Please model this.
Amino acid sequence: MSNQKEKKIKESPKLPFMDHYKIMWPFVKPYMFRAFLAIALCIPIGALDAVVALALKPYMDVVLVDKSAHSPAYIPLLIVAFTLVQGAFNYAATYLNAWVGGKITTDVKRALFKKLLFLEPAFYDKHDSGHIIQRFSADVDTACTGLIDNIRLFVSRVFSSLSLIGVLIYNSWQLSIIAILVLVCALMPLARLRRMIKGIIYKTVQENSTILTNYNETYHGNKTIASYNLQKQAFDKYDSVITKLFKLSIKMVQRTAWMTPMLHVVASIGIGGVIGYGSYLIVNGEITSGNFVSFITALIMLYNPIKNIGKNFSAVQVSFLAIERIADILNIEPKITNAPHATELKKIGREIRFEDVCFAYNPETPVLKHINLRVKAGTTTAIVGNSGGGKSTVVSLLPRFYDVCSGKIEIDGKDIRDFTLESLRNNIAVVFQDNFLFSGTIRDNILMGKPDASEAEINKALEMAYLKEFVDEQENGLDTDIGERGSLLSGGQRQRLAIARAFVKNAPIVILDEATSALDNKSEAVVQKAIDNLMQDRTVFVIAHRLSTIQNADEIVVINDGEIIEQGSHEKLLQKENGAYRSLYNAQFKNNK
Model:
């Protein structure tokens, strides 16, 4: 496992032992009656195991020893009747456990997914997709369904054991002492099991998340893998992780598999001791043959499930550890939230202002250094500069994808942290370089900008985004499926669909983050026309590498290494001797000449 992944484990907030279960209690509470009923049904299921053993005493003494013709005929019928009752209870308990387990699992998954939706982008920066799938989905099945199934099994076995121990004592208290002492010795090692497997389970979870990431990367990067002939490297990466998982599974076997044979040996010692001492008691007339057979039957029925209890106990520990991981996730609080006094942002009247803004993704590596910028409402501001200089970070701070480390951003004189997140983001439309489109139809993706948009609004958005002709050509029109992440569309079509989505939102602030840089010249020309339409009568922030697309901006800001080094109109900046913008412009002009 990589150091990076080990760090991820430590980053999760750890809670005191009991707090994990306090966090999970609200999910269990609504279903407590059914859960207790399911557990209560396990009591007679287990207790009825003693019926067969108990019934053998009179049957053996009367029929096989005394040779009486008046055998208790009710005994076989009684055994069948009790078995039928036990089977009915077993079905009811299984059904209730499945229902309760499914309900709790569903509720926990809802809560985790809702938590995931409101976590800030920084969380996604730190954790890969496999980690998120494992922690937010797979752990829930392990925790809820696995735990409830094993609790049912444990409860039935506990009461089966108690009832069988009662049969043992009824038949011979002397032999019972031997049997119970052996049972206690057999179960003592279970106390060490949790400590022995905890570290292995955590490492297994992390490696499983890496496996999921490998599958995701292979799916989304299949063309890159093919074009660069990366099949061997991708396989070696996968093989390394799967080998680690194999070694971890072997470690788990080494630390748990000894329990079953050990319990077999201990059980055989108990049975051997009982047979030896039982023979002595029969010869001396202290117990009957019926007592002895009934005792041996109860003892075997008691020891058989005990011999396999190690596996079930391991599964329970895995479930408990999964519950702790879930509780750690539920305990995470989003770092970017509404302030207690937050108000709604209704419009942008005057200006947006960056005042002495500093920001860093990691404390030791500053990204933005004392950014001061005033943007008048209704104007277009272009941000250019060297790669990695902080251009995208500047605009990411405006919708509060991240919060400033120091300084502040104001809209009409009010700190954006004093507005509700929902109202702030409702006033901002973002078009990225690689826009994410959701699986579904063209209509579905446009309506994400405004769920209640009318047909007229949708059609206008399509026209302004130069997408109307394409949609009309499709057999299903707006209901044309676009595939996962818009895979059935070209790059230009994806960008124009994202622009149409922004049009429908009709937000007063528009952020264009290198929206055309990944397109060819022909596609760029059409998309640029759509962008020009989107920019009308709005406050616009444009990040662009191609300076030809931002020459008409009201203000051009040059950012290098996190600092604003130049600012002004296109003409003004070109007049600066040895200016950074002029150098960028001349370099691009020469390259395009």
About this structure: Residues 1-13 have pLDDT under 50 and may be disordered.
